[in-house]
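ARCHIVE CARD
SHELF: 3
SLOT: left
DATA:
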Amino acid sequence: MKNEFKGKRILVTGGTGSIGSLIVRELLVYAPRQIRVLSRDESKQFELAQDLPADAPINLLIGDVADKERVMRAMEGIDIVFHAAAMKHVAACERNPFEAVRTNVDGTQNIIDAALAHGVEKVIAISTDKAANPTNVMGTTKLLAERLVLSSFFYKGTKKTKFACVRFGNVLWSRGSALPLFVRQIRRDKAITLTDPSMTRFFMSIKQAVSLVFKASTLMQEREVFVLKMPTTSMGNVVAALQEILTEDGIIKAPVPVRIIGKKEGERLHEKLLTKEESETAWETNDLFILPHDVGYSLAKGRDKDAPVIYKGAKKARIGEYVSNGGSLLSVEELKPLLREGGFHKQF
């Protein structure tokens, strides 16, 4: 990664969010020439600037990825793009579907067009498990964003820009996720509102998420989706583990009441990171599934569609769905050390 990022100009869209801001912080370790942050919230930009060294090569840009002219200007002279800007909340996307399309779909196309126009080396776009066989607006727009990224090959001509996506599960302690909400409810002496104790989810830490993004940027050949293998558990176990941690640390004296409110609009009981159809062409390593380019790409390149795509240490994936209720779930005891990582201490 020292060779990957050293001396490069890097753009991080959504660079003040939970994932984007850690991408920015971690990139500084590798001595880039400049990091540009494009985001809409000036207050979050101010907060990020206060947390970074005064001499950090950061340029904070206010702007919206749905504004193509702004994206074009932000992309000038850039070598690598991490596209983390998105509408990511299921309920907000359900109530504002057109805005979800503008940000997640139009915004992604603007990133693609600007990257091609400015000769960017690589674009890594961040996607979600909800894009696998989507059932809600957010997942649908993110699936379309994935397809836009992957189909860019067919019209980019002689441009050298390479594109890839990474697909996340639930990121522990990310802004706006369930865990910070539970903590706020506890601090206000309110009952924890839980949709369904049997609901299962994939979980990863923010550091794991950023590590996956960086790994994808070094492994990518052209037009892949990288999927992190991650543990699953039930939301009931998450709440129980959080309550035990807070009790052990003396933050609460007894478990807080839990109120079951049922699934929210657009939510599904179990998530999916990989469909059966995707697994048929997927490769896997110890920690990743890799969905390579499709048959159309192989034929366009004059390759045999069955010819192997080489990734270090990879083998053909087992055919089948990769779903959150498809294997053993993390127990409460197994969850507790995970919940203590990556943001727990910042809540108190």
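SLOT: right
DATA:
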Amino acid sequence: MYAGAIFNVAGNTIEIKKNSEVQDSFGIKGSLQGVNYRYEALDHDTSGDASYIGLSTTVGGMTLGYDAIDTDANSLVTEDDSSAFAVSFSDANKVATDATEQQQISVSTSLDGTSITFKSGEITKGLSSSKDMDYMQLQAKRKLASGATAVVTYTDRDQLNGSAVGSNENLEIELNVKF
């Protein structure tokens, strides 16, 4: 059974939820002195706790950001989109199930109509119970005259090659068209 409340207090959005019989969550987001923040906490009676924090601010046309996840169990992190993180914490094909923490910094700006974002981070125990995963990502996004959007993304992350840590480089080129 789901029950919850979302309300605004002094410009902050606060969420309190009873997600299931064994899981509760809390969240707050807002802005203070030009710094945007978001904090979420999850309490699972049998699997443990998880928390997320996101901070961002804009200085001189550049948006600086910091995001972090800390969890007792990788299975508690179910967000699989990479809008916040360059490497999805819950992607079992890339990240070890021992992973417990992730931290990332980001910088984004716009240059002649092209949005450019750089992300760099680390996943604690991301490769194995004794090896962390480092990664970086550079993305450029531009609306074209046709109305389509071109997106070029380069991601470089650590990957285990046997027992040695190697590099996995990926270049994605997308053309997003709306009908």
